[in-house]
Amino acid sequence: MRGPRSLLLGPARRCLRLLLLLGSRRRRLPLLRGLVQRWRYGKVCLRSLLYNSFGGSDTAVDAAFEPIYWLVDNVIRWCGVVFVVLVIVLTSSIVAIAYLCVLPLILRTYSVPRLCWHFFYSHWNLILIVFHYYQAITTPPGYPPQGRNDIATVSICKKCIYPKPARTHHCSICNRCVLKMDHHCPWLNNCVGHYNHRYFFSFCFFMTLGCVYCSYGSWDLFREAYAAIEKMKQLDKNKLQAVANQTYHQTPPPTFSFRERVTHKSLVYLWFLCSSVALALGALTVWHAVLISRGETSIERHINKKERHRLQAKGRVFRNHYNYGCLDNWKVFLGVDTGRHWLTRVLLPSSHLPHGNGMSWDPPPWVTAHSASVMAV
Ligand SMILES: [Zn+2]
Ligand SMILES: [Zn+2]
């Protein structure tokens, strides 16, 4: 049996041996060297696992915000379906009100030529809205081909790890690169890019036109309906008061029928909805028209603005290489060089390809000398 003395001596002896080991200069150096080597080896292993040649502070910030981006992207992706259904339901409700409430009223009051004009214009506008909306949501915006190395590229996408042609940007909601990306539109549940930019703009334009037409055309009907609703409220109030006071000794005065009530409320709804959409969408359409006139997309607007300020600070002038001049920008946008007159393309629905393939941005051959000089740096 070991005594208390041996129990104390054992650990003390071990401690002494460790101290002698650390204290010995000959033995301390290899120990420290081993520790340093292991530390370096661990660092190399960690770096090789996390190596990314595109890494930097931007990548670190992106990585830190990745959960928030993921949440926002998924919410927008989910909202996209809801928004598309909302557009279809609201547009259908306006068409239904026009047929069920407005048409019976104007049939009694409008002259035949006026009726014909309204009939043809409203249906032409409705066809264009439906056509361009359908095209905008179903036409893919255009994606750079993967695995091809014969295309002119300007950078590599950090997300896709594929070459990116000029004007191409990565959409985090679609999770892929989009040619000449303008923005991701939740109302279309689709990206607006090279192949559907015109459909998006045409939809905005004709929808604004339709809303202005509806709110302007139904102004008199709206005023009458609004006055009738106010009267309706007053009558209901008087009736309730009379019932409460028990002052009716005879039949109460007739109030509005159910159909009349629905018609008046529908007309007020139609006017308010169309006016609001006309204002909001009209502003957006004007903004996009300005961007198209400048040969910019919504994303390029921010990039070019930054670049303009950067060069301005250096005393240099920024030139947008895709700006061919206002008129030629519109010609390129409307695909005027594919055979048909631009007016025909604007007024009539058509399925056509825009100018170019969205990857190379050489100026079209018909760009005037003036436009060429605008493009020159
Ligand atoms: Zn990408
Ligand atoms: Zn997208």
Automatic annotation (TrEMBL):
**For this protein, what is the EC number?**
2.3.1.225
Q: Which domain of life is it from?
A: Eukaryota
Assigned GO CC terms: membrane
User: Which part of the chain is the Palmitoyltransferase DHHC domain?
Assistant: 155-302
Task: Kindly give the membrane topology term recorded for this protein.
Answer: Multi-pass membrane protein
Q: Name one GO molecular function term.
A: protein-cysteine S-palmitoyltransferase activity
Reactions catalysed, semicolon-separated, are: L-cysteinyl-[protein] + hexadecanoyl-CoA = S-hexadecanoyl-L-cysteinyl-[protein] + CoA
Recorded hits in InterPro entries, A to Z, give: Palmitoyltrfase_DHHC, PFA4/ZDH16/20/ERF2-like
Keyword terms: Acyltransferase, Membrane, Transferase, Transmembrane, Transmembrane helix
Q: What is known of its domains?
A: The DHHC domain is required for palmitoyltransferase activity.
UniProt lists the family membership as follows:
Belongs to the DHHC palmitoyltransferase family.
Q: What is this protein called?
A: Palmitoyltransferase
Q: In which organism is this protein found?
A: Neomonachus schauinslandi (Hawaiian monk seal)
